[in-house]
Design goal:
alpha/beta, FAD/NAD(P)-binding domain, 3 domains, five-stranded parallel sheet
Length: 538
């Protein structure tokens, strides 16, 4: 095997929330020699790439941040409840500068492959710059939603206008003024972008395949007194979100919605609706995710809201979800989404009632036998979630086996952090960990801390290799599936279930543990305390 030019204790792939924290921990806590590779030209990850109109976080900003820098928690001032992309990117730039992280990050560099050398127990990592470096540990911080899904629309190459994918928007922005714009998709991203684009465009046509249940964000400035109270209680907040189900200060109502009187539950629904954010999804009656009858009661409330907001009854009916239970798909938070369809300049084309997209023509989109002339098309078609970004790294483990081969029928991991046959590889918020079913920074911090402790333990005990056992991996996969099969989650054709990518094996990608993020943290800590049970150390 070719000799590598440089050797590192660890190579980290990606410089978003995960990569920055991983670098900080390994370099400054353990004193390791670390190299981070990042495809973009600065830090940010998700918040570097996603620059579409209306892009913002949808967890409250006071918990959508790093909690390990206690002073920064006190100093940093967020401008609103859900800051927009430029502000989150400024925050991550500030963190990188404050902790001098950029000196160990190589930007504008993509990892093209890596293979494990069984003779040396090292990872040989290759980049698109023609480099090869060796590392004891390889850590993926590539994000869960970073591998863009661009369906192969017939005729796209003929389109004479401009087209963009929301995850690869021009850094200079796009001026929609006076343009005829088509948006393809109505997921969480589109729900943020559509109201913004509608304010500029001469005409906006939304092409919908599956209607979504949206709940209001209620974004805005946060009361300064509340900010002060939160800053005084950060120790308590951090403990609560770490022990919570979803990494948020949201807790299920511990009774059945069917036991509540109509007046009682309407009052509860109204309160959550008016508060905005994820409460309606993550702090509702606990049987909503398990019982179709209970779910129907919650879903009916949202359907009534859609009908009372959208003035044209036919459009309202198109916007009402059919065929999946409420909460089984990613919850979009909206700001004037439904109201946008009351504009004379906005039209909804629904695949089920009007006919799906047949092809892109030179001048627009043909759907249901009708042509819609467009100047600009925005594709909000999402991602090859969770497994896509990892498969794209071209990783080879023992005996040259590729990750794509190992995962031909869906992901197989131990805890979502390690993969049998791939020693010394750690996947931050990988498949089969809580990841996307939580407030991401909370899950990221838990993984980074656990990986850091693991590597420190290995160094102290003179071990150079750690690998998940196949049996532990099989047991974890069975556990992930057993838990989710008791819920309604498996009934939806969602990207959680891998259903958004044609030909992708149907599998539930995250982990919905009995106690969520808090229970998963306890489980990982127990495994470490038992000498890394389920792992082989050599």
């Amino acid at each position: 095997m070719a000799s590598a030019t440089q050797h590192f204790d660890a190579v980290v792939i990606g410089a978003g929330f995960s990569g920055l924290h991983m670098l900080k921990s390994l370099r400054d806590k353990l004193g390791l020699k670390v190299r981070v590779y990042e495809t973009g030209d600065t830090v940010g990850g998700t918040w570097y790439w996603n620059r579409y109109p209306g892009a913002r976080c949808d967890s409250d900003a006071y918990i959508y941040c790093f909690t390990w820098d206690k002073q920064l928690l006190q100093e940093w001032e967020w401008s609103e409840r859900y800051p927009e992309q430029p502000e989150i990117l400024r925050y991550l730039e500030h963190v990188a500068k404050r902790h001098d992280l950029k000196r160990d990050i190589q930007f504008n560099t993509r990892v093209t492959g890596a293979e494990f050398d069984e003779n040396t127990n090292l990872w040989m990592v290759h980049t698109d710059k023609g480099e090869e470096v060796a590392a004891r540990h390889l850590i993926t911080a590539v994000g869960t939603l970073s591998d863009t899904n661009m369906p192969p629309f017939k005729g796209l190459e003929k389109f004479r206008g401009k087209w963009y994918h929301t995850s690869r928007f021009p850094h200079t922005g796009v001026d929609f003024t006076g343009k005829r714009v088509g948006v393809v998709g109505t997921g969480a991203t589109a729900v943020q972008a559509i109201p913004e684009i509608a304010q500029q465009a001469k005409q906006l046509i939304v092409f919908q395949r599956t209607a979504n249940y949206c709940v209001p964000a209620r974004n805005g400035k946060v009361d300064p007194e509340l900010v002060k109270t939160r800053k005084a209680d950060y120790e308590g907040i951090v403990q609560r979100i770490r022990e919570s189900f979803f990494g948020q200060e949201h807790y299920f109502i511990p009774k059945s919605v069917l036991e509540a009187t109509r007046e009682e539950r309407e009052s509860v629904f109204d309160r959550m609706w008016d508060a905005g954010g994820f409460a309606f999804w993550l702090a509702n009656y606990q049987d909503m995710f398990f019982s179709q009858e209970a779910n129907d009661v919650c879903a009916d409330y949202i359907k009534r809201k859609i009908r009372s907001t959208v003035k044209d009854p036919r459009t309202a009916e198109k916007l009402i979800p059919k065929g999946h239970a409420y909460g089984t798909k990613r919850q979009p938070l909206d700001t004037n989404y439904y109201e946008t369809f009351n504009r004379d300049s906005v039209q909804l084309v629904d695949a089920k009632t009007d006919g799906g997209i047949e092809e892109i023509t030179e001048t627009g989109i043909r759907a249901g036998g009708k042509e819609y002339p467009l100047d600009i098309i925005v594709f909000a078609t999402g991602f090859d979630a969770m497994t896509g970004p990892l498969k794209a790294l071209n990783l080879r483990g023992r005996a040259g086996r590729t990750l794509t081969q190992e995962w031909h029928d869906g992901p197989h991991t131990y805890l979502g952090v390690a993969i049998a046959g791939f020693p010394n590889l750690f996947t931050i918020t990988g498949p089969q960990s809580p990841s996307v079913l939580s407030n991401m920074p909370v899950s990221i911090e838990q993984h980074v801390e656990w990986i850091t402790d693991c590597i420190e333990t290995m160094r102290k005990s003179g071990k150079t290799c750690i690998e998940a056992t196949p049996s532990a991996q099989d047991q974890w996969g069975a556990h992930v599936n057993e838990i989710v099969s008791a819920t309604l989650m498996t009934t939806a054709n969602s990207w959680y279930m891998s259903a958004n990518i044609p030909g992708k094996p149907r599998a539930f990608l995250p982990y919905l543990g009995p106690e969520g993020v808090g229970g998963y943290r306890k489980k990982c800590d127990e495994i470490a305390a038992k000498g890394y049970e389920g792992f082989e150390l050599a």
